[in-house]
Design goal:
- About 30% of the residues lie in helices and about 25% in strands.
- The protein is an alpha+beta fold.
- Helix 3 packs across helix 4 and helix 5 runs antiparallel to helix 6.
- It is globular and about 60 Å long.
């Protein structure tokens, strides 16, 4: 069992219909039929949405996604229509709200990996493959791969694991043409972002994208290249052979699995609230990633 420790009641806003509450985002539809996506400060770990929020997190994710969308616009269109606040929306939605085109979403998490870690490392240790792709011997935690690889996953419900699948399975589910477009777009975006991040002293180890169709072709959707959807590592401390420090919620994971939390990850009990020092350290990592990548101070 997992999911929300306590699922929040969706805010009711005149002129908007609430559609869905996800791990981080609340989704609404406006009277024009466009989607209104609001990034909260919620944080998840080990398939649980935690009871403690990280201040500014939703704004960081939104502003960083917008920064990346601008730098990817020549590669692929995205779903953003406007960042204007809907009439009647609370002031707290400022900076964390996107009005987006409604798309037919492709039910695939499109993951690009340039380095071996996470679930890819676990599979490699067993079979020397990742999502069925053969990799050379001798790789270890944090190793750079010979070339970036496309390792898709099926999208899971809140509280469930996304499941890694083979490219052939994606082609079976969505068709050969769409599968080829997903792979090409995913690797092209990853390569562009990897080079931009590297110039700023950050390694983009892996990342995931979501795509939809708008009638004219593939469109990049949801969030892109944030600490929630990507593994960012400081380049100056990169050293294969062990877990790398990262610009994400590692402080949260480390505290939850430490004796200090008193939480048993294997139990069905929800995780406890986070202490203030863990909240502050996690917020600092999100802000640091934003500032290093964009070159802008967080206002």
């Amino acid at each position: 069992m997992s999911g929300f420790v306590e699922k929040p009641e969706p805010l009711q806003v005149p002129g908007l219909v609430h559609l869905h509450t996800g791990k981080v985002r609340d989704l609404y539809q406006n009277e024009a039929g466009d989607l209104v996506m609001v990034a909260s400060d919620r944080i998840s770990a080990y398939d649980w949405v935690l009871p403690t929020e990280i201040p500014d997190k939703g704004r960081v994710l939104t502003q960083l996604s917008l920064w990346w969308f601008d730098r990817l616009a020549d590669l692929i269109p995205n779903h953003v229509i406007s960042t204007d606040l809907p009439a009647g929306a609370p002031a707290d939605w400022a900076g964390r709200t996107l009005i987006c085109r409604s798309l037919r979403m492709v039910p695939v998490e499109c993951v690009a990996r340039g380095y071996l870690t996470g679930s890819g490392l676990a599979e490699y240790k067993e079979s020397r493959t990742v999502c069925g792709l053969a990799l050379p011997e001798g790789l270890t935690d944090g190793s750079e791969l010979p070339a970036p690889i496309f390792t898709p996953a099926t999208k899971a419900a809140v509280g469930d694991h996304d499941e890694n699948v083979s490219y052939e399975e994606v082609a079976r589910q969505v068709g050969a043409e769409t599968a080829a477009q997903l792979r090409q777009s995913t690797l092209a975006i990853y390569s562009r972002a990897r080079d931009i991040a590297r110039d700023r002293g950050i390694i983009l180890a892996d990342t995931k994208f979501e795509f939809g169709h708008d009638g004219d072709g593939l469109v990049l959707a949801d969030e892109v290249l944030t600490p929630d959807s990507s593994r960012f590592w400081p380049a100056d401390t990169w050293e294969p052979g062990h877990a790398q420090p990262s610009y994400d919620k590692q402080y949260v994971r480390d505290w939850l699995t430490s004796p200090a939390s008193g939480w048993d990850r294997t139990s069905e009990q929800p995780p406890p609230p986070l202490p203030e020092r863990v909240v502050e350290a996690t917020r600092a990592k999100y802000l640091e990633a934003y500032e290093l990548l964009t070159g802008h101070a967080w206002a």
